[in-house]
Amino acid sequence: MEAPLFERLGKEPGITQFVSDLVDAHLANPVLVHHFKNSDTNRLKRIATEFVITAVGGPRCYNGKGMKAVHKGMKISAEEFIQVLDDALIALDKNKVAQREREQVLWLLYSLKADILSAQSTN
Ligand code: HEM
């Protein structure tokens, strides 16, 4: 039987590095960087790492809000959402993550699209 995705991504150390590279890619992405200009990058990396660890079947360490509530009113466009996936691919590549795990991580992120984009309405 296939090991849990959490293990195949290198457990906490592997996921911490992936998320760190993902956030760094956003900061270097001209389409996304303006969203993060007031961010505490280390805090964001820590919380996003907890989210991913929990989402891929690791220890349940994310205690934050759901993705719809987190991104409410941030005015995130569909184009920006795709740029986040592009940056995820850059970070997966950098961490030499294999094809099947890439597909699973990208699908996991993509599956949040409806929540994150519907969070943009102000009512
Ligand atoms: C599948 C995609 C995404 C996931 C899993 C995700 C996850 C997260 C998480 C876990 C946080 C931290 C919440 C907290 O501070 O309590 C966060 C914050 C944030 N996200 Fe996302 N996000 C996604 C897509 C996006 C997109 C497309 C944008 C647009 C650029 C975006 C912009 C932000 C911003 C600006 C913050 C707040 C940063 C801060 O407070 O320092 N996210 N996201």
From TrEMBL:
Keywords: Heme, Iron, Metal-binding, Transport. It comes from the Bacteria. Transmembrane segments: none annotated. Heme binds at H71. Gene3D superfamilies: Globins. CDD domains: TrHb1_N. The keyword Transport applies. GO terms for molecular function: heme binding; metal ion binding; oxygen binding. Pfam families: Bac_globin (PF01152). This is Group 1 truncated hemoglobin. It comes from Paraferrimonas haliotis. The lineage of its organism: Bacteria, Pseudomonadati, Pseudomonadota, Gammaproteobacteria, Alteromonadales.
